[in-house]
Amino acid sequence: MLGRMLLTASRSDRLRDFVATAPVTRPVVDRFVAGEGLPDALAAVRDLTDAGLDVTIDHLGEDITDPAQAEANRDAYLALLAAAAPLGAGPRVEVSVKLSAFGQALGPDGHELALANVRPVCAAAAKAGTTVTLDMEDHTTVDSTLAILDELRKDYPGTGAVLQSYLFRTEEDCRRLAVEGSRVRLVKGAYREPASVAHQDRREVDLAYVRCLKILMAGGGHPMVATHDPRLIAITLDLALRNERVPGSYEFQMLYGIREPEQRRLAEAGEQVRVYVPFGTDWYGYFTRRLAERPANVAFFLRSFLPA
Ligand code: FAD
């Protein structure tokens, strides 16, 4: 219930203004976001890669309202890739993009606009020896995002995409994408979706995740198992054995600031672990989705408004 209210709040401009300007918000946001500027992000990346973890960097932004913002977001990714290149980490440092930040929702031309804006980012990533993963947003964007993925993979075959186990359609999408060279990041799903398209019960979402995982781990692609759920991590390790997959032929992914000891434990055990590192000023939507995932986070956030 609280989670659903927060997911609705994640799209409220009035709440965004209130939360973003409240002075007490910052320390709570810092738990999930690696800072507002590129130097902050690069410092976090350096710490993580030094600790044996791989990263995917997200320049925060979504749901933009005019094409100039889409171009600014594209340019921010080009600057990010140029700045990350001297770290020399190649595929250990990749980027994640939200196509709504590249213009996908801007009317009938949004699809083409997003494709045109993301293409140079894929080209710059390829030049830096790394890849781009397309985040998945609400269910209305899935067809467009997967069509853009198909287009991009013709020139940049390492481009990956996210699939969300809560959507009824996802098992079918996994079957289509479990092929040689493909990179699929499997998540449970973080948006408020109607019962007509998505499982509402957490147990059903988890069971669907396992069905999707089985398809991806048995297939020819590179599964990116993005979850903090200990049961799903254990099932992945079991499926890796059954499918004779070695670490690196699949990877675990977790979010910056969440279950950090587990990130390090898996990496020390020889698993490939990639941390999703968000940075930038437009953190409100990302932040409220993290609150919605866990009631304890809301309590932590609300406590910060109380006098010390
Ligand atoms: P849960 O059952 O939610 O959590 C399992 C355990 O993990 C919890 O008990 C808790 O210990 C810990 N945990 C989980 N979330 C939190 C939190 N916010 N704060 C503190 N502890 C927590 N969703 C999309 O819809 N589209 C995307 O493109 C997308 N990209 C993602 C990329 C990565 C790398 C990851 C890890 C997640 C992404 N997500 C995305 C979010 C995802 O859909 C889930 O909402 C999120 O991962 C929580 O689900 P879970 O699998 O960790 O399981």
UniProtKB/TrEMBL annotation:
Domain Proline dehydrogenase: 42-300
Molecular function GO terms recorded: nucleotide binding; proline dehydrogenase activity
Pathway membership, UniProt: Amino-acid degradation; L-proline degradation into L-glutamate; L-glutamate from L-proline: step 1/2
Reported cofactor(s): FAD
Cofactor note: Binds 1 FAD per subunit.
Domain of life, source organism: Bacteria
Keywords: FAD, Flavoprotein, Nucleotide-binding, Oxidoreductase, Proline metabolism
Catalytic activity, reaction form: L-proline + a quinone = (S)-1-pyrroline-5-carboxylate + a quinol + H(+)
GO biological process, one term: L-proline catabolic process to L-glutamate
Annotated substrate binding sites: 98, 289-290
Enzyme class: oxidoreductase
EC number(s) stated in the UniProt entry for this protein: 1.5.5.2
UniProt binding sites for FAD: 136, 164, 188-190, 227-228
Official protein name in the record: proline dehydrogenase
Organism: Yinghuangia soli
